[in-house]
Design a protein that fits this description.
- This protein has about 280 residues and is an alpha+beta fold.
- It has 2 domains: about 160 residues, Ribosomal Protein S5, domain 2 (2-Layer Sandwich); about 110 residues, Alpha-Beta Plaits (2-Layer Sandwich).
- The strands form 2 sheets. Strands 1, 2, 3, 4, 5, 6 and 8 form a 7-stranded mixed β-sheet that branches. A 4-stranded antiparallel β-sheet has the order 9-10-7-11, sandwiched between helices.
- The longest helix has 16 residues.
């Protein structure tokens, strides 16, 4: 039985600008996205029993079967192949669910790449991204595998080649935030011309200068605790802090591993929240 053991990384948004609402109901976005090495663990195996099966064990809020975005990813490639094949997918969730870290999208992207390899379909990353964007707006980014400026609904990607390697402390208080709810409650207003996004960054300070998230006021108004998390991270030595995606994870940026690990440990011990120090990748 052919199988693959894969890791699906989380992401943070160094910047998230909402530029307007589109006729199709989506929003035009401009995001700077960075992967981090907190990863779900995925096993994909070819089997003799036709069909796609996905299990996530006891992961709260993550369905098994067709309700899982990873199932839809595998099913799309099986249908494209035109073959009667069986695929079993097991996902061990390490990335908090509904947390603004892109765990579901990363799982789907990883499954697309893994099934493409197992079935020897020979699809290019570009073709996989075209399939992936129909599953979720963040899926193409995880197939892109580089820090990126993402535009449109997240499907237009430009590589950012000079982004420093940093330590990131992720803190999640266990609040599940619905991305759909956040966008439904977003009040778009006329803004001054949007800032230019640099294509290279010299260090921690330049990345921290970039930090901005148009969704943060919506989520923080509903969950004021998130502002407290940001303050905690700054007090612990972070150069900057921001909510990732639609929340509820807040992250702080550090140049030093020791300081990042100490901050994560202290916050986890004092508050009992999910807190971990990870590297950018």
């Amino acid at each position: 039985m052919k199988k693959l053991q894969l890791r699906a990384p989380a992401k943070v948004n160094y910047r998230l600008d909402v530029l307007g609402k589109r006729a199709d109901g989506y929003h035009d976005l401009r995001m700077v996205m960075q992967r981090v090495d907190l990863c779900d663990e995925i096993e994909i195996a070819l089997t003799d029993l036709p069909g796609v099966r996905v299990t996530c064990g006891a992961s709260k809020g993550v369905p098994d079967g067709p309700g899982n975005i990873a199932w839809r990813a595998a099913d799309a490639l099986v249908k494209l192949s035109g073959r009667e094949v069986g695929i079993d997918i097991s996902i061990a969730k390490k990335i908090p669910v509904g947390a603004g870290l892109g765990g579901g999208s990363s799982d789907a992207a990883t499954v697309l790449m893994g099934v493409n390899e197992l079935l020897e379909l020979g699809l290019s990353d570009e073709r996989l991204r075209e399939i992936g964007v129909k599953l979720g707006a963040d899926v193409p980014f995880f197939i892109f595998k580089k820090p990126a400026l993402a535009e449109g609904i997240g499907d237009r990607l430009t590589a950012l080649e000079q982004v420093p390697s940093l330590w990131v402390v992720l803190v999640n208080p266990g609040i599940h935030v619905s991305t759909a709810w956040v966008y439904q409650n977003l009040r778009l207003t006329t803004k001054v011309p949007i800032a230019i996004i640099p294509d290279s960054y010299g260090g921690l300070a330049e990345v921290c200068d970039l930090l901005s998230n148009d969704l943060e006021p919506v989520t923080c108004a509903r969950f004021p605790l998130l502002n407290e998390l940001k303050d905690l991270l700054i007090a612990a030595g972070a150069g900057g802090s921001l909510m990732s995606g639609s929340g509820s994870t807040v992250f702080g940026l550090f140049a030093d591993e020791k300081a990042a690990r100490q901050a994560a440990a202290e916050i986890a011990k004092a508050r009992g929240w999910f807190a971990i120090a990870v590297r950018t990748i």
